[in-house]
Design brief:
Two copies of one chain form a homodimer. Chain A has 282 residues and is α/β, with parallel strands linked by helices. Chain A has two domains: 127 residues, Rossmann fold (3-Layer(aba) Sandwich), CATH 3.40.50.20; 146 residues, LpxI C-terminal catalytic domain (Cytidine Deaminase, domain 2, 3-Layer(aba) Sandwich), CATH 3.40.140. In chain A, the strands form three sheets. The first copy, chain A, has a six-stranded mixed sheet, with helices on both faces. In chain A, α1 links the parallel β1 and β2. The longest helix of chain A is centred in the middle third of the chain and has 17 residues. At the A-B interface, α7, β7 and α8 of A face α7, β7 and α8 of B.
Amino acid sequence: MNAPLAIICGGGAFPLAVAEAARRAGRQVVLFPVRGFADTSVEGWPHVWIQIGRFGFLKREMRRLGCRDVVFIGNVLRPRIRDIRFDWTTLKLLPLAFSMLRGGDDHLLTGVGRLFEEAGFRLVGAHEIAPDILVPAGQLGAVAPERRAMDDIAQGRRALAVMGPLDIGQGLVVMNGHVVAVEAAEGTDLMLARVAELRANGRIKAPARCGVLVKQPKAGQDRRFDLPSLGARTVEGVSRAGLAGIAVEAGGVIVADAGELVRAADRAGIFIEGFTREGVET
Amino acid sequence: MNAPLAIICGGGAFPLAVAEAARRAGRQVVLFPVRGFADTSVEGWPHVWIQIGRFGFLKREMRRLGCRDVVFIGNVLRPRIRDIRFDWTTLKLLPLAFSMLRGGDDHLLTGVGRLFEEAGFRLVGAHEIAPDILVPAGQLGAVAPERRAMDDIAQGRRALAVMGPLDIGQGLVVMNGHVVAVEAAEGTDLMLARVAELRANGRIKAPARCGVLVKQPKAGQDRRFDLPSLGARTVEGVSRAGLAGIAVEAGGVIVADAGELVRAADRAGIFIEGFTREGVET
């Protein structure tokens, strides 16, 4: 375990949260920020900038630095093929890459994981390194969900349970038992903005503080990649959409700064509830 | 069958298409346009304007005019309770109405249907009166779907099949096997606008003319209300979203002006395919 941990860093606050957790646990780390996505704040750490499509370079650098375990964390949007400059190693993998790009996100990420494992690295989930980033079970802030919200949560979980196997979204909005928005390629923030807009133009009629954002990982999703996440910006979106709160699967959704999240939710009067997988009513 | 057919008219072109079909079939009609939704062009026909929340008035007028069969057709958005002026008959039904408003659209419409049947009217599907408004099976215009599009259609149908029982949307967009947008409260037009936007900002990466809009009624949906519809505006939205075509369930989706639809699709180079329920691959 003296080998430094390789952290492939996408955008957002998560990469440094994970790096700090690993360092606190006494682990050496090397960051591999992805150009175009990762924040320059990674430069305060041992790091090597990398580019999508240059897997050969990354593999050599990871070996040179003695890395064996590797973590993927942060946002990286699926790139347009013509924007990628491939190196030879990657070019040889292209037929495989193309077949992966045809599937949903899950296939792509599972494929990327396989490539690393075939090259001799061990893929580790960010939450294994930094368990503190996982949302715990129960009520998180000062506000508790009301009875009606609990019903909405149950309905949202039923809907996500049937959609997950089809690799569709990790989130939706339920109001009074009615699913009013489903998240797919647009992501949570844009889905919440849509709900706010549909309320403003009268297309959704519901009293203020009604409805819940429900998020959980897709069934069968490889949790070493791309767990759904939550942050102060989510709280803002939920507040603008006039919802009562947020419900996420405990242990299945990550938060970079839990303190900031809870403060934002309390200020906005919004509940955050971590539900456990066992408790699904059907 | 000499009793005039009552047509409760919401917005859009469908009410007159149905009225004309009924008249062509030798049937007398009386239109009951809903104030705030129906177009004033209904005034060229025998008509009585009605208001949401005034079911007692409607019932009396339908009886006075000797109507027995009643058709619902056209768009009526779910109203905000405080915007409705109820009459006594409706007020007495309010506890029932509130329990209906808590459910999804299906519950609401099924409940409305029950009220009419309890009052002695017979609810008829618009497509029973005007079968021509139903999309037929097979290729509709000049453009045929390619192999890749057929795969996307199959994937979209699988996804809609699992979502329908949960009363979620009647439509979605599939690209390369990946569901990139799911329609819920926003409706088809806004979903298509979203896909166009996600393409424009690079969030969805796919070549032009890739992807399919798939629509079908929800499983168990009462087809006497609210069949999904298609029109020239849908073609416009599909074209702006850069999709290859539209696939809808034959006999399960309505079109007010099929000629106009096909001309628009041909001009835009977009396919329209009516699939049959039997052909679902799972």
